[in-house]
Amino acid sequence: MGLAAIHFPNFVPLPILGSYFDIVDFAWLKAGLVEHLAESSPQQLELLEENTLMASAIISDVFGRTLTILMLAFWFNLATKPSQHQHGFWRWFAASAVITFPAVVGDLASYVSVLLKHGQVMSYAADLNSLNGLLKLPPSNAWSQFASSFPLLLPWYIVLGYAAVGTWTEFERGQALAISALPWLAYYLIWAVYILIAG
Question: Within a 10 A sphere around the Cβ of 164, how many other Cβ atoms?
């Protein structure tokens, strides 16, 4: 489990991310992270430096969002193959980017929240796009990564996906909804079951 995945799953766009490190009291942040990592990941304590955390956050954010869009595009392209109306991968890629775009609103809300709290927000609880923005589970909790990854805008993503599939294909409503919802629900259900089994 990498440092970026623990601390900054799907955090915020790069300018806002840089601002987080300008606002937060890094000594306070580091003390809080040390407290939670001392037992679960002691080998990562030496990586708790401001530049390392910011670089990890940027890489994690760019990689995570890009991979989400690519996988959605791949799924939509594959799932709509039986349709009479064929669309290329890159058109589905553009649609997937639009589907996940509402996260920008959550990014701005996350930034405003950090400002209003004068930076006194732990990195793992700062993303208001995610379930962990509400639960604030520390990295030592088995469900922390799951909650940090789980988007609160998931219903909206499914609705936008449904609209794209319904508009670009002749599929019936139920089939379009299933195509839109399946990748999200399957991914998080499998992950949740894995956590429960792994304990």
Answer: 24
If one counts every other C-beta atom within 10 angstroms of the C-beta of residue 152, the result is: 16
* 33, 7 contact by CB (below 8 A): yes
- Give bridge partners of residue 130 from the DSSP assignment: 151
Per-residue pLDDT tens over the stretch 46-62: 777 888 888 887 788 88
Confidence of residue 70 (pLDDT cuts 50, 70, 90): very high
Q: Dump pLDDT digits (tens) for 170-188.
A: 999 999 999 999 999 999 9
Q: Whole-prediction pTM value?
A: 0.84
Tally: H helices and E strands in the chain: 10, 0
Q: Are 48 and 35 in contact (CB under 8 A)?
A: no
Q: Which residues of 140-150 are buried (b: 16+ CB within 10 A; e: fewer)?
A: ebebbbbbbbb
Decide if 3 contacts 17 (C-beta within 8 A).
Answer: no
- Token match 């499998």: residue? 190
Rounded-to-integer distance, Cα 74 and Cα 163, Å: 17
